[in-house]
Amino acid sequence: MLKILKYSFYDLIRSRWSYVYFLFYLTLGFVLLFLNNDVSKAVITLMNVIIVLIPLIGTIFGVMYYYNSKEFTELLLAQPIKRSSIFLGQYFGVAGSLTLSLVLGLGIPFVLYGLYRSNAIFDFTLLLVTGAFLTFIFVGLSFVIAISNENKIKGFGYAVLLWLFLAVVYDGLFLMSLIVFEEYPLDTFSLVATALNPIDLSRILILLKLDISALLGYTGAIFKKFFGTDLGFVVSMAILLLWTVLPILGLRYKAKRKDF
Amino acid sequence: MIIEINNLHKKFGKNQVLKGVDLTIEEGLIYAVLGPNGSGKTTLIKSILGMVIPNKGQISVLGEPIKKGWKYRKKIDYLPQIANFPPNIKVKELIHMIKDLRNSPAAEEELITVFGLEPFLNKKLSTLSGGTKQKVNIVLTFMFDSPLIILDEPTTGLDPKALIRLKELIQKERARGKTILITSHIMQFVEEMANEIVYLLEGEVYFKGSIAQLLGQTEQTDFEHAIAAITTHNHA
């Protein structure tokens, strides 16, 4: 698997899109620091951009890479390599190179700005960690969608729909259900509903670490009570990890059964 | 025997491609797998390679069932039908990569000279013509030393000179005691190369035997006509 990972990773590192992605974060990081002049504020703004953008880029990159490397995959399938190694190697190659672009792209401006001397270092690290999680989750989901759909257009469509659902529609449904059922106690419901969507979960996790939960009112207090504690933190990380592992298992399952 | 296939079934959606194929491949011979378009030749070969997963039936390669295994592919050199290569890498890099992935000794230099590929080593695969791609494909297949060689339409796009080289190469490997499985629609090529004919029809083995047996059974004097006549006589 490591050899496949190596080739996929090098292949992507050499591609133009990785640089575009890297430069985008680099510019974003510098611009935000320059305009805000405050690391904490920059982290919040970054969070808003990242939480939506990372899943989108992960989804699109994942689907594109899968379909574009079809020839390579077929070549590999006839070689003495385990099937799951081929797909997992490609998956980690894509997710790894995207994560590297993110970490370096945002890391460089922040380090130059003097992150080590500010107390936002923990918030910033959390931002990068959740960013990495989101990358792995969404690249994984898009690989599962791509391997399940022979038709490129369909695969692409489903992947973008999934992103749209988790990034936008889910929140809408969530809010609507809160309004419809406002007569009832909704603390547990909103906690669970948040935890089930990796994008929402990441957002809440970062917001709470930034200590602006007061802005969220009563619900914020409940969230703080849960997610703000060490236990809540561990549980949320575990859920993110679960979200990462499930698509990988799905990918393995699909890879074992597919005909080429 | 080097390959043993029992009661192999494969369905793609509603399309039943293989309907109970039974086949034994003995060591040291050249087999030609023939049949009309869509008779299941490529599916059969891909099943042996584990690229297609059968619905029913068993395949053993070199005495071991291949189900869920992958190490047995080290014993097989496979030439895919259409050379689908990653477009953005150079010929040299591709050869190096496959060597690295297989992790076995390879003799690619001689083959590169034989097929005159030196001028193309630093070119990207997307810029190569169909015939040149096929030559690269052949180099990638024959550079390893495996006991079983599977060639899916090896003659596609080759010029006469390269075709002669390919025939020599196949005979050389045969002389070294290797088993070779070929699919082809070029009957002249098959007649020249094959010791045994396996004729697939509608997902079943319709005929298996030598060319002489085929000529005798179909009462034809010419191989090409015998293949064409094979389905009109009932002698399976």
UniProtKB/TrEMBL annotation, chain A:
Keywords: Membrane, Transmembrane, Transmembrane helix. This is ABC transporter permease. The lineage of its organism: Bacteria, Pseudomonadati, Bacteroidota, Flavobacteriia, Flavobacteriales. It comes from the Bacteria. It comes from Flagellimonas hadalis. The chain crosses the membrane at residues 20-36, 42-67, 88-112, 124-147, 159-181, 231-251.
